[in-house]
Design a protein that fits this description.
Layout lengths: L1 E2 L7 H4 L4 E6 L8 E6 L2 E7 L5 E5 L14 E5 L2 E5 L6 E3 L5 E3 L10 E2 L1 E4 L2 E5 L8
Antiparallel strand pairs: 1-11, 2-12, 3-4, 4-5, 5-10, 6-7, 7-8, 8-9, 11-12
């Protein structure tokens, strides 16, 4: 099992309602985004060259459009990033921090913990502090 966040979920925890199986790891292309719909929540998944998987909101916090999975995946000094295809703001995939606001007030991107177990990608979805 590869854990890609600070938590270390065991098999029982992974079956809890907050962890949701999204897809197989092999379904995600390297350096490309993919969108997933979990109930009424849209998330974007990104698999980087180093094999890590990141999950963020699919909704661009600057435009309100559901487009982040179509953004440009890259890095800044070893920090994995995605640039929004709308207004080109750049976000840290680990923390959601906006690294380049393109002259606008900063808005962070919500990120979610990800775990990969036996080739399956799981995302932990919580609604704490979620305005939706």
């Amino acid at each position: 099992m590869t854990i890609l966040d600070a938590e270390t979920p065991d098999a029982e925890t992974m079956s809890a309602p907050t962890w949701t199986r999204i897809c197989r790891l092999d379904d995600l292309s390297v350096e490309r985004g993919a969108a997933a719909l979990l109930g009424d929540r849209q998330i974007a998944l990104f698999r980087t060259f180093d094999g890590r998987v990141y999950a963020t909101d699919q909704i661009d916090p600057f435009s309100g459009a559901a487009v982040l999975s179509r953004g440009i995946v890259g890095d800044r000094g070893g920090v994995p990033t995605v640039a929004s295809p709308m207004y080109k703001q750049v976000f840290d995939l680990r923390t959601g921090a906006c690294l380049d606001t393109q002259g606008k007030d900063p808005h962070d991107l919500r990120v979610y913990p990800v775990a990969v177990r036996d080739g399956e990608v799981f995302v932990k979805i919580t609604t704490e502090g979620d305005p939706r």
